[in-house]
Amino acid sequence: MTLAATEAPISTPSPDEGPWRRNLAVCMFGAFTTIVAMTLLLPFLPLYVEQLGVSEHAAIVQWSGAAYGATFLTAALVAPLWGRLADRYGRKLMLIRASLGMAVAMALIGVAQDVYQLVGLRLLAGFLGGYASGSMLLVATQTPKARSGWALGTMSSAIMAGNLVGPLVGGALPPLIGIRATFFAAGAVIFVAFLATTFLIREAPRPRNAQGKPVGAGWASIPDKGPVTAMFATGMLLMLANMSIEPIITVYVATLVRDAAQVTWVAGLVMSAAALGSILSAAQLGKLADRIGHWNVIVACLAVSTLLLVPQAFVTAGWQLVLLRFLMGLSLGGLLPCIAAVIRHSVPENAAGQMLGYSVSAQYVGQVAGPLLGGYVGGHIGMRAVFVGTCVLMAAGALGNAWVQRRRRFRAIAAS
């Protein structure tokens, strides 16, 4: 048996059968709206903190950071728990819980009376949420394996689009309807996602044991833990590569742009370019992975991004950095769908939710570690060193995945 054989589709139904396309459309809408809701407050968060009674500038900044990060902290901590419950009781049920919980939490944030309530409700939103990661899990397990890469790539595009659109909506709505009404509107849209999830998504019955109870499994049930561990590390590297330049980007752009009035504009373009590239490429790279293998796409994406990081350290104009970040986004767009697909193919079905939950937590680690490492390296060694250091990490990731892939191939040949 070859490695290609182990990744070939094993589902007997035609890829066009079943409700998976409708499930995908509903999950895309729900993931997009919940991500927009989680990120839309970024442009006006300091203003809201000030409205809630904080007046000192330093305190406004600190409370804004705490409120914004609170949601992602609790989301990272509970992702494996929700994944495990999804394995036991159903992925649709977890999406219903997440969408209803987020709708309520967003409405409550709109009536917060002080910053303590704001931070507490943001923590609650992260605890109750998890729609995006849950929808990736449902799509991964309910889509025919022959189409899983494309479907997961499309899901990734919706999630990344939410991250891109959220701050834009947050900048446009408050001047029109007010800050509190913006939260109410976000909650209302998420409630629509809750209704669509409840009445439109169809999930195959969960496996049960002889006593009729849902079957669950954990880490011990995975025969080969190498691929799953590699995917955890790859997801962390992906987020680290995307986020490592966040603390230095405005300062770095200031060294490239002569007109000081254009610095923030160009910095915004640089930050958005990678996300836009990933949105455009995720579905196509996922579709390619369905044909040539998910591991091949992962190694190629990491290798290309490694090469693109080097010239970013030596650009001489802002447009060059925007272009390179866009190209890097194109190369990284295939990673999230392929990570989810490899995990799905490497673990028993009744452990997929828990393992994908751990994968989400690993990605959050990269999302937190990236800015911390980038800020430290940029401040103590130099801004160009941030790109070089990230390049080294991505190269290590490419080599590590290539080694795991080769080991799997040898094991498959030996077992045949």
Break the fold down into its secondary structure elements and pairings.
Layout: H1 3-6, H2 20-39, H3 45-51, H4 57-89, H5 91-109, H6 115-128, H7 131-142, H8 148-177, H9 179-200, H10 226-243, H11 249-254, H12 263-292, H13 294-312, H14 318-332, H15 335-346, H16 352-380, H17 383-415
Helix pairs in contact: 2-7, 2-8, 2-9, 3-4, 4-5, 4-6, 4-16, 5-6, 5-7, 5-9, 7-8, 7-16, 8-9, 8-12, 8-15, 10-15, 10-16, 10-17, 12-13, 12-14, 12-15, 13-14, 13-15, 13-17, 15-16, 16-17
Summarize the structure.
It contains 17 helices and no strands. With 416 residues, the chain is an all-alpha fold.
Q: What structural keywords apply?
A:
416 residues; mainly alpha; 17 helices; 0% strand; globular
Write up this protein.
By secondary structure, this protein is mainly alpha-helical. The protein has 17 helices and no strands. The chain is globular and about 70 Å long. The chain starts with a helix and ends with a helix. The model is unreliable at about 1-15 (pLDDT under 50).
